[in-house]
Design brief:
Layout: H1 6-9, E1 15-18, E2 21-24, H2 33-44, H3 47-64, H4 72-79, E3 88-92, H5 97-111, E4 117-121, H6 122-127, H7 132-145, E5 153-160, H8 163-168, H9 170-187, E6 191-195, H10 207-228, E7 236-240, H11 251-268, E8 277-280, H12 303-317, E9 322-324, H13 337-340, E10 345-348, H14 350-359, H15 362-375, H16 386-393, H17 402-406, H18 410-430, H19 437-443, E11 448-450, E12 461-463
Helix pairs in contact: 2-3, 2-7, 3-7, 5-7, 5-18, 7-9, 9-10, 10-11, 14-18
Amino acid sequence: MSAPISAHLALGQAVTRVDAKVTVHDEQVLATPAMDAVVRDAVFGEAKAKDYARWLLWELGQAVGVRPCSIHDLYMARGRGETHGFTVPAINVRGASYDTARSIFRVAKRMDAGAFILEIARSEIAYTDQRPAEYVAVMIAAALREGFRGPLFIQGDHFQVNHKKYAADPVTEVDAVKKLANEAIEAGFYNIDVDTSTLVDLSKEGLAEQQRLNYEVCAEITRYIRDREPKGVNVSIGGEIGEVGTQNSTVPELRAFMDGFNATLARVAPGAVGLSKISVQSGTSHGGVVLADGSIADVKLDLNTLEELSVIARKEYGLSGAVQHGASTLPDDAFHNFPRTETAEIHLATNFQNMLYDHLPQALRDEIYGWLRENAKDERKSTDSDEQFFYKTRKKALGPFKASLWALPADVLARLGAAYDAKFTFLFTQLGMQGTRAIVRQTVKPLAVHRPLPGTPGAVVVEAAPDDATLSD
């Protein structure tokens, strides 16, 4: 199959291909505007051009050491007490994804950071119009564009079982999550947070019964993931014991879930690798609580809960610790507490979306808000102010306006990029990311996963990582 598309042509003689083998002769070209043309094909090209560009980006990453990987082994090392003192940020990249991710990689490269996650939730995949294959291609392209080298931890966030849909048809709803997990793994998501906490039933007698559906369904989805992960890859899987935005989690709940999960997994998949982390509720909510004037209500973050649950998760179950969701809208003076309490991971999303909207040209913002007035009007409560309505619904415009957000004027992108750089530098500093590339190199061994050319027969080929410093330097 010849390369009929602009994606390969944009790189000139710096990259050659013989059949399905890609060779990079000049890595510097990957960090030029030529990469912009390739990733644009991967997102907005016609079907054949899109497929080829995504394949090419994947193989370029394999060639130079920008490989999607599982963070599982790093988390297991943390569970054994071999590393500590930092909290992994899991960043939901929703809008203007290429430019947002470029900022993350710029900061990571400057700070020698390696232990960070790029993620997208089940709900976000839908409303941002970013299927897993596209998302992985964009993250790889952003890393290449900024000259970043090292494992990419790409995560499916909140692969969640919807409570109402489960009540109506449990098989179909669980199968939908499994189908998404399969799509994500094939795309290169080697980290997945399974969220069955929506199935916790507090009306039941006793914690084990309250958590039963949660841990049983989580174990079944874990079995499914283990059956489909590439050979040699242990997908990092997280569970969740308390739905974010509800009452705070407790140690007895943690034990009830983990004991039930481990017993169930041993029954349905003997010998299968279990979880690497556990998400808990400690006082936050997704996106924060917006007041009538558009400001965000103060959050009562229970750090003692986070610390206690992290300790139990590590000492009794060998996990990396507890995971904090809904953290991006916390005040700046909160973030240094996460490494201090040895919180394993925090999830950051809405504030970056807020920053994006704050930097949009007024005409585009007005157009988006006009679209929301018509297309999201059913979500407006009678008590909502305009500020509350737009704050809660504007994420729904990221998909319909994706092309516009990718085509922002250069001066707008420059200001937005500078703001993102400052925010990611602050967060990475507070979370102890400086120098974490070293612990990633020690614990994570990136496999080479080669894919056949689009439209040709062939299987995925997995190769062990050689002792080659270029894969992490």
